[in-house]
Write a structure and sequence with these properties.
Layout (H helix, E strand, L loop, with lengths): L5 E10 L2 E11 L4 E5 L6 H8 L7 E6 L2 E2 L5 H6 L1 E5 L10 H5 L1 H5 L4 H14 L4 H4 L9 H13 L5 E5 L7 H13 L1 H5 L1 E6 L2 H7 L2 E6 L2 E6 L1 H6 L4 H8 L2 H8 L2 H4 L14 E2 L5 H9 L5 E4 L5 E3 H16 L1
Parallel strand pairs: 3-8, 3-9, 6-7, 7-8, 11-12
Antiparallel strand pairs: 1-2, 1-4, 4-5, 9-10, 12-13
Helix pairs in contact: 15-16
The structure holds adenosine-5'-triphosphate (ATP).
């Protein structure tokens, strides 16, 4: 394994003799998204804030790109780590462009480079600069402010970004829209991200890897699929119980269902999905047009709604067997 982007060993934090983070260890490879998930008060934010030294641990070590963060000046460390929080924390007397430029300015990037980067980020985050660069935070909606917060965290192109409930304060529709942008933003895909949430659907949508915490301890760390189909204990099983079906539809892909699908005569004008599409995506496509079929790219198979559901059921039995 290459040097982990983040390597945490035996991390512990106590408040008045109560360990709110207990002996946590993990390694995160560069470019991965780790979601810290768990009930309120389980220690997610405390763990995240130890990564950028907003909170100092009582025990254990943290290495970022192979360097012990205790050897680094906290302010410098933080300039190298993007940070997005629920309250956004934009500076009210700075324009959108000025807010985005804060860290690049501290790092003494060239003015023309900063302008170019700001323009690029605002455009990609659906805030056309001609309209928004000169506005003040109070003139923006909550969702727009959150997009500016993300642009600000990415402005200096840090390889690691820490996010604490970044979509927590938004209504469900805005939240889904920003999550979609988040997934489609190429530059975020390349970054190492640690994201805190208590929203299970959000965790499954964004994570390469989930660490499910309870009372300061990792109950299980693994891919969404591992947590769902191979729960390490009862806590993990119970945590996903209420949303199990929705999660299964999201986690299983057409590739999983494929062996159980009957061959159908090809309908040339049918919509096509790749084998990596989730059963959920296929279901959405098919339920809009009952009786219709979809083609599965690079295979000789097509499927209708009934066939998909029958295949899903068999793929589920195979995954949990
Ligand atoms: N400064 C502090 N002094 C004492 N206790 C604290 C302090 N900060 C946090 N705690 C306690 O530590 C525990 C973990 O808090 P933390 O904020 O990390 O949880 P969380 O999982 O992020 O919760 P939430 O999802 O509600 O934000 C909580 O029980 C909290 O009350």
């Amino acid at each position: 394994m290459p040097t982990p982007a983040i390597h945490v060993r035996n991390l512990t934090k106590r408040y008045q003799d109560r360990a709110v983070v207990q002996d946590i260890s993990f390694a995160l490879a560069p470019g991965e998204t780790l979601v810290l998930l768990g009930p309120s008060g389980c220690g997610k934010t405390t763990l995240l804030k130890m990564l950028n030294r907003l909170i100092e641990p009582d025990g254990g070590t943290i290495e970022i790109n192979g360097h012990d963060i205790r050897q680094q000046n906290p302010a410098e460390l933080r300039r190298g780590l993007g940070y997005v929080i629920q309250q956004v924390g934009l500076l009210p007397h700075y324009t959108v462009a000025e807010n985005v430029a804060v860290v690049p300015k501290l790092l003494k990037h060239k003015p023309e480079q900063i302008t170019q980067r700001t323009t690029e980020l605002l455009t990609r985050l659906h805030l056309p600069p001609a309209q928004y660069a000169g506005q003040y935070p109070r003139q923006l909606s909550g969702g727009q402010q959150q997009r500016v917060g993300i642009a600000r965290a990415l402005a200096a192109d840090p390889p690691i970004v820490l996010m604490d409930e970044p979509f927590g304060a938004l209504d469900p529709i805005t939240r889904a829209a920003i999550r979609q942008d988040f997934r489609e933003l190429d530059e975020l895909r390349r970054k190492t991200i640690v994201l805190v949430t208590h929203d299970v659907q959000e965790a499954f949508e964004l994570a390469d890897c989930i660490a499910l915490l309870n009372q300061g301890q990792i109950q299980q760390m693994g891919t969404p699929r591992e947590l769902l189909f191979r729960p390490a204990n009862n806590f993990v099983r119970q945590f996903f119980a209420a949303e199990r079906l929705a999660l299964q539809l999201r986690v299983l892909q057409l590739a999983d269902v494929l062996p159980f699908l009957p061959m159908l005569p090809e309908t040339l004008d049918a919509p096509t999905l790749p084998t990596t599409a989730s059963v959920q995506e296929a279901l959405e496509l098919l339920s809009g047009a009952p009786g219709s079929q979809l083609r599965i790219a690079e295979t000789n198979k097509a499927v209708d709604l009934a066939g998909l559901m029958a295949g899903f059921e068999r793929a589920l039995s195979a995954a949990t067997a």
